[in-house]
Design goal:
Length: 99
């Protein structure tokens, strides 16, 4: 299986930055730990994009949109032939609005 490139568009990058900043208010160490775990999990997708189930919150999902949860955050991503595109990072308590 070929390795895909992991892409972080501006919106999910900003969402990751905001979650880091929010956690940092209570604990700089935990903020770094959570951010690092999310980024590492995203990198691992490059070798195994089908590791997680299709995103149950994505309407009309053809199976290319998938998601996983880590530290109460839900990370949604799209699998293409050459790339893994991170599409959303949100706290699991937030509304799972379609993206």
């Amino acid at each position: 299986m070929k390795k895909r490139k992991v892409i972080w568009p501006q919106m999910p990058k900003q969402q990751l930055r905001e979650l880091y900043d929010n956690i940092k208010k209570d604990s700089l160490q935990n903020a770094g730990k959570v951010r690092s775990a999310i980024v590492s999990a995203a990198i691992e997708l490059s070798e195994n994009p089908g590791r997680y189930n299709p995103d149950k919150f994505k309407k009309n999902n053809d199976g290319s949109f998938r998601a996983f949860e880590l530290y109460h955050f839900r990370i949604a991503y799209k699998v293409t032939e050459k790339e893994i595109i991170i599409v959303r990072v949100r706290h699991t308590s937030m509304e799972p609005a379609d993206y």
